[in-house]
Amino acid sequence: MKDSISVDRNADDQAGATPGDFGVDEKGGPPQFLPELLNRPIMIRMKDGRPIKGVLVAYNNYELLIDLGQGKRLIVFKGAVSSIDCEDRPQKGDEDRRRGSI
Fold this sequence. Notes:
Layout (H helix, E strand, L loop, with lengths): L33 H4 L3 E6 L4 E9 L3 E7 L2 E6 L3 E6 L5 H9 L2
Antiparallel strand pairs: 1-2, 1-5, 2-3, 3-4
C-alpha cells in the first residue's frame, strides 16, 4: 500500500501578486495624487485634529510646503497628516452657466 502524503501550501507556493492587485501603478510606487494638488487651495487635518488651510507649493517624500498667505509658509511632515481636503476645480462650462443664468 502506498502512503498518502499531504502537502501544505505556504505563501511561496502561491502565485505572485501583481502591482495592480494592491493599487500600485506600473512604476512600482503607490498612485500619486499630490501632483494634482500643486498650487491649489487645500485644507490639511493633522493627526491631533488641527486644520491648516493654505496652498500646496511643493512636496517631497517626507514633507509638504504650504503657503499660508501674507508671506508665511509652513513645512508639514507627511507622517503628521491625517487627511487632505481640496476643492474640485470648476469645469469651464459651469462658470459660463453661472454667469449666464439670471
